[in-house]
Amino acid sequence: MDDINVDALFLGPKSENRSFFKEMLNFLMDDYMEWRRDYHATDQPAILESDHIRDDFRATLLKTRLTLTNLAANLQLKSMPWFSSRYLGHMTTDTLMAANLAYMLTLLYNPNNCAYEGSPATTELEIEVGKQLAAMLGYDTKKSWGHITSGGTIANYEGLWLARNLKSVPLAVADIAPDLVAGLDEWQLLNFSTKKTLDLLDRVQQEGLFERFRRHSAAGKGSGHGKLGKVLVAQSKHYSWVKAVDILGIGKENLIFIPVGPDYRMDISVLEQTLTTLLQQNVPVLTVVGIVGTTEEGAVDEIHRIAELRRAFEKQGLSFYFHIDAAYGGYARALFLSPDGSFMSPEQVQQEWQSPVFEKEKCRYPPESVYQAFKSMPEADSITIDPHKMGYVPYATGAIVAKDKRILSLISYFAAYVFEEKEENPVLLGSYIMEGSKAGATVAAAWTAHQITPLHARGYGRIIRRGIEAAIQFYHAMTDSKQLQINGKAFKAIPLIRPDLNILDFAFNRVGNSDLTKMNLLNQKIYEKCSYKSGPVYTNDFLTSKTALDSVDYGHVPGRFALAHGIPEQEWDRIRTVYILRMCIMTPFLTNHTPFDTFLGKFLQTMKEKISQIMNENEAFI
Prior knowledge:
The chain has a seven-stranded mixed β-sheet with strand order 2-8-7-6-5-3-4, with helices on both faces. Strands 1-12-13-11-10-9 form a six-stranded mixed β-sheet. The N and C termini lie far apart (56 Å). By secondary structure, the chain is an alpha/beta fold. 44% of the residues lie in helices and 12% in strands.
């Protein structure tokens, strides 16, 4: 079955599908307990009926009951209601019912996916999930490889780990077998393409020189104090990239931040200028990182243009590893895939996405640059993608996919106590990953989600599309809306950028206010009244998140946003930080059976009430 009903995939904001969920949970738990009981059925019980009536036994069960009851009460009091359409904050929401059930079931079996012996069922599922993600991202599943990590941070570390070790291959080969790279100087050795490097590695293995080579590579000698080159990533990067260059010995001084443009995507013209300068100075480039779904804005870098630049600079003698951090936006590629897995034309996309929202000319989606970015993702050497974000799978479930699985030999390790090196097992997962012990339950959750919800426009696409529709409607509602009249003063909400995905950043300001400190305080107070900071979260009508865009990370680009609010340039130069509210609309139920105008009215009414409270509390300042 290709088509899915989104409403049948989730427990629901009001537990609408609780009967099915409880039925399946009871069945799965009973089935698991029968499995225990039937294993060598003739074995005698270890816990006798007489044990159950012992005072200490019953006291222990009572203590267990009370502890779990207290935990349940505490969770309800202090947990975020991700499931609710009123939660419009971080990158999390209700998760798929099937994924939750698969997780609960599998954690009872407690598989450890570090070693096949400890997880024969879920290790195979992990390899299968890697292939499913590879196919969705446009890779050849016969040549690529992927696996589940604990999150996007570890996946990004692994991407840079692959890039670092790959870059060192030609230099290491020159040390041990100079005839294989005869006539090439160091600059040429540092600028092999990914394919050329892996082809050279094949020669090394054929010559029986791999172990000698490994000792001379980055895995053996380290990063060479920056000799392998610079890491280029947009200013809008996730903080994991700063940590990654430190952990992998590349060094923060070799991390170059490329400014973003007014759309908060990497400025490709600056990237080109930077690459040109590095080429002129004979400074190698280790990797360029493109982002599909920035953490703060949900922006999609122009992946197609980065790929074009790589091809152009390779002709000039400069090559680099290309990684995409699609931890957040990777699953959105399903929006562009037909049920047969092919990447649809813009016309086919529009036909597939028929909806009253997208039929409006001003709401048309996707923009050409976003379409081309997703289309070009297979040109990257590796991609980070998180099932626990837009895959709607429980934490902690990240993933990385590599385009050419030959690269795994550069990071392969064997631990005798986990598995034997000569063991002919195609899924010796622990030898190719950064983590050690890892839960098979998250793998089972992702695999189950993919089985039920296809990785194309009529599967995941139908879930993700709902959030994008809502974000675009919010954007136009804010840009078209009139001022809010509150206590005799006018206020206006302005969005940061038109959403590339389902994240909308915006800020309020009092009309006529030119003081950025006051504007920042207003939005900070709004956040505090729409978050856990104002007390138990269940008392809030809406929950949102926030961020601050400053000149350190974003240069002068946020100053344009401040200017749109009537903040003069000299005021931005004085404060150099703008505080904004962030709405990540992952819920597929925001306007389900509810007109958007009705939901918008409730939201704006809540904002009016919060701002009125803030004015009463800070009248002299606001």
